[in-house]
Amino acid sequence: MAETASVRCPACRREHRYTTPAYPCVCGAPVAPRLDRGGAATPVSHRVWQDDWVAVRCASCGRRGEWPRPEVGCACGVVLRVAVVEDGESAADGDGTPGAEVAPAPETDTVRPAAPAARPPFPSVTIRTARDAVTATALYLRWLGYRGVRRADQRPPSGIGLAARGVVAQVDPAVRPATLRDVECLWLTAMTESVEGVYFSLAGYADDARARADALGVALFVLDLTGTPRPVNAPADALAASGTGNRAP
C-alpha cells in the first residue's frame, strides 16, 4: 500500500509531505515502493536511466517489476530522490529494465500479456517534464502488455526511444508537431527489427506525417498533460483497444 512520510530537503531544509504513487501490476493489484524511514532524500545531480527505476514485488501475485523511483521537487529548485526499500532479489530474477518481471515460465519472443478484458484502467501520470513523458509512455507500454521496457539501443533523430519485446516506441516531448521524417525514421527502425512501431507526441503530428503513418501502419498517440495517451489513427485505436494480446505475433 502507498505510504506517506516527511521528506526534508538537504539544501534549504524545507519539509515536504510525500505519498508514494501506486501503479497497477499486470494482475490488477496496486503496487507502490516501500519508503525507507531511516534513509535520507538525496538531490539528483544528473540522470542515469537505471537509477530512475526501483525494483518492487507485488504483494498479491509475487511478480517483481521495475517502477519509477519516487522523487520530490522542492521550491528551491532541487529534485530529491526519496529513499526506498528495494526488492532484495538478484538480477537473475528479472532483466533489470523498466517493466521487467518474474514469470512462472521462460518467455519466448512472442508477447503474451494478460487478456485485454483483465486490464485495469490506465493510471495517468501528470506530465511536467520530458522525463514525465517518458515515464508515462513506459507505463502505458506495460499496460498494453509489452514486457521488458527499456531505453532503445538506437537513438532516434528526435525525442527518446524506448523498446520492449515486439515494439519500438518514440517519445517526442517537443513543442512542434512530429514530422513526416520522424514517422518514417521510426517505421524504418521498426521494420529493420521486425517489430511494431509506436509514436507518442506531446504536440501532435503534421498532416503529411499522419497520412504516412496510416499508410505504413505506425500507431500514433498524443500525450496530453494528464499523462494519458490518446490514439489519433486506426493502428493506435486497434492497439489501445486490444493491447498486444489479440495482435499477430
From TrEMBL:
Region entry Disordered, spans: 89-119
Domain of life: Bacteria
Protein name stated in the entry: Restriction endonuclease
Organism whose genome encodes this protein: Streptomyces indiaensis
Lineage: Bacteria, Bacillati, Actinomycetota, Actinomycetes, Kitasatosporales
